[in-house]
Amino acid sequence: MFAALGIPLEAIAANRVKFGVASAFSFETLIEQARTQAAAPYKAQQTAPREILEKIDYEAHGKIKFKNDYALFADGAGQFPLTFFHLGRYFQAPVHMLLVDGSGADAKAREIVYDESYFDMPADSPARQLPRGSGFAGFRFQESRKGDQAKLDWHKNDWVAFLGASYFRAIGDLYQYGLSARGIAIDVAQAGKSEEFPNFTHFYFTAPEDGSDTVVIYALLDGPSICGAYKFVMQRRAGVTSGVTMEVETALFLRRDVERLGIAPATSMFWFSETVKGTGADWRPEVHDSDGLAIWNGSGEHIWRPLNNPAKTTASAFGDNNPRGFGLLQRDRVFDHYQDGVHYERRPSLWVEPLGGWGEGAVQLVEIPTDDEIHDNVVAMWVPRAKAVAGSSYRLRYRLYWQQDEPFPTTLARCVATRLGNGGVPGQPRPQNVRKFMVEFKGAPLEKLAFGELPEAVLTTSRGKFSYVFTEAVPNGVPGHWRAQFDLTVDGAEPVDLRLFLRYKNKPLSETWLFQYLPFKTRTVYEG
Fold first, then answer.
1. Which domain of life does this protein belong to (predicted)?
2. Residues 237, 144: Cα–Cα separation, whole Å
């Protein structure tokens, strides 16, 4: 068994987990399976009795723990033990878990057969009522038992998890989960259509080399509109504070037309920040997993778009050709800005790096209203320009970086805060249709300005007019920390697209700040 690595099956699964019949496996055969499956009508997965699954609510699900004695790769194979999640109310679709034995033409896959004995659960848990072989909901890789990470309790700490539909997430440099990625996004916030959530239905695990910091898994995705095959090469870099990198290769096949096909989607939560906070919304100064969308476009421009919590669902598109990268980032890393024990200041950023040309399309950002932190309400994704019609296929590669900062930051000054307040002049009545903006930038190009040299704020707007425009060094004594201030006067309720960067003598000093101002919220009391 596992001849390529010389690892016996007993070492892979502690000789406890039950396996099904072996069948041939390769990534190319998985791709062909997805192609063939997409040509046939969609068949929804059979699930365990829904009335039982509904009883396994959040509290009941939290009491069901996979037994560490049954972890794969925990006894001599690799360094990252593999454990599984149980089905429940919020994770009802069973997922087939298979172990790949051997390599090349000799590779075989054997399914890991579900058994309730793999889990610790209360005697009265509704999960005990499920039929035999009901299946798993997802999986996670635990921290290493070797090197620096051995200081952590691998039984309690994991670094990547796949759970629910095609969702997955990983920790970053600061050892914290936050936003999620997805295999695909189908018709997010598309007028007249319901969003579709395809499922990863099968996962295939290869035995990692002993001591390697990399694991390789394969997945089959299926849904009413799409079928696809995925390969994930996931690296947990040495040390506790180094994040996770994933190289993803996918082949996608459409069963039917899709209006908004989201490639490499990221899903996050943004409730409020220092930008706009309604009086009495919450006791904390800020609550968000991500505070902005960063784009490095095909022409080399670095863009920062602060996130909004809009009054109604909005979608923004940033057209591009062969983008260099984009991501939802958490730039604010100061605990005092959150004051929360769940540590929003440690949430990872997620950066998408296309590998190979992706052609024409747009990074699209969907923002959905929320009044609580429990709802993911932000999606960022790449949407190809060509229509996604039935019979279309895609072969794509990209790399995901889960870490505290973007992997390819600009050398220009970066935006560090956006603040809104009442416009007009202090001591005089404040007009309702005027808003004041304070946009802060910090970075080396601003540090190099000599005394008396004043950067210019280069501003454009889709509508409205500017007044009181000026720049100044933030009076905090921090070198290279400047802000641009301006008032915007605008009538009507339609969104306003703003654009700003700093320059001196026609030389750009900062990245480009984009912002979608929402006038229909102007009667809110703003606190900066």
1. Bacteria
2. 11
